[in-house]
Design goal:
Blueprint: E1 2-4, H1 8-17, E2 26-27, E3 31-37, E4 43-49
């Protein structure tokens, strides 16, 4: 399941504050994603979309866009 947000950093912070283990945010070239598992083990991803960046550019997280 993918959920949208305007601030993936805020969501990641709230999840961490409530003991939820996350990965990221990671840059996927079209948006930042924070994945985590729900209590049943299902993968949930929170997405903050942005306008695609040109190849070989970096993001504010210092990760190369793909």
């Amino acid at each position: 399941m993918v959920l949208g947000t305007s601030s993936v950093r805020d969501v990641a912070g709230r999840l961490a504050a409530n003991g939820v283990q996350t990965i990221g945010p990671t840059d996927h070239g079209f948006g930042f994603i924070v994945p985590f598992r729900d209590p049943d083990g299902n993968l949930v991803e929170v997405l903050e979309e942005y306008e695609a960046k040109p190849a070989n550019s970096t993001t504010e997280f210092g990760i190369f866009a793909v």
